Amino acid sequence: MSRPFLLGLTGSIGMGKSTVAEMLREEGVPVCDADAQVRALQGPGGALLPAIEAAFPGTTGPEGVNRARLGELVFGDAQALARLEGIVHPALTRARESFLIEHGAQPLVVFDIPLLFEKGHERALDAVAVVSAPAQVQRARVLARPGMTPEKFANILSLQMPDAEKRARADHWIDTGGTLEQTRNMVKALVARLREKNPRT
Ligand SMILES: CC(C)(COP(=O)(O)OP(=O)(O)OC[C@H]1O[C@@H](n2cnc3c(N)ncnc32)[C@H](O)[C@@H]1O)[C@@H](O)C(=O)NCCC(=O)NCCS
Ligand SMILES: Nc1ncnc2c1ncn2[C@@H]1O[C@H](COP(=O)(O)OP(=O)(O)OP(=O)(O)O)[C@@H](O)[C@H]1O
């Protein structure tokens, strides 16, 4: 039975993954956004709140998870991060399965997964596209975000596979170091090529 072509989308912090995911949606490609799912599961009334509160007391409330607080506890403490991932990642796997059933008739679907290579998700995908920009562009983008410090940035970077390795492993590279228009043209070209590879009637 035919099925959609499964493209993974990844990239390190601040590289422009969310921006590219939005461009893909504008091209009519369904995008399953792991970060958005985590936010829903951790938001007000989210299904993961009881388990997170039990493991990290004081980090949840009526507004859901206090992400800044939880981030302080887990970024920089490998054991705590592994405990949080043990709660979050199985729920993400289930969400991905439902997404695929919902969009099973499409030629192409995208899974936007921040830690795609770090967690071995490439094994379940047909191809992977990585978004990346020069390190100094990444740094400037990330440090401009409210609440970000050079220390927090360094910690998060140390948890992620180096950008050069991601690019070496990926099948497609989307350069986000230029203008938004240049990036959009690359996105359009990639979508056209992949849809051609897997035409659906
Ligand atoms: C700790 C949390 C609450 C902090 O939230 P916050 O809004 O402050 O940061 P945000 O989620 O935007 O992450 C900031 C950066 O850290 C990276 N990051 C997030 N989780 C992880 C992780 N487990 N390992 C490595 N990098 C991570 C993100 O890709 C991003 O580049 C949140 O990141 C979380 O719940 N993480 C665990 C779930 C997870 O693994 N998510 C990433 C895959 S979907
Ligand atoms: N050519 C480009 N392609 C993509 N983003 C660009 C480009 N030029 C500038 N930007 C800007 O860079 C920022 C990238 O942020 P974005 O949230 O997309 O990154 P991200 O990789 O999803 O980050 P994180 O992993 O931390 O969630 C946006 O503000 C975007 O407008």
TrEMBL record:
EC number: 2.7.1.24
NCBIfam families: dephospho-CoA kinase
Organism placement in taxonomy: Bacteria, Pseudomonadati, Pseudomonadota, Alphaproteobacteria, Sphingomonadales
Protein name: Dephospho-CoA kinase
Summary of the function given for this chain in its UniProt record: Catalyzes the phosphorylation of the 3'-hydroxyl group of dephosphocoenzyme A to form coenzyme A.
Location in or out of the cell: Cytoplasm
Residue intervals passing through the bilayer: none
Species of provenance: Novosphingobium pituita
UniProt: ATP binding residues: 14-19
Keywords from the named record: ATP-binding, Coenzyme A biosynthesis, Cytoplasm, Kinase, Nucleotide-binding, Transferase
Gene name linked to the record: coaE
InterPro entries: Depp_CoAkinase, P-loop_NTPase
Involved pathway(s): Cofactor biosynthesis; coenzyme A biosynthesis; CoA from (R)-pantothenate: step 5/5
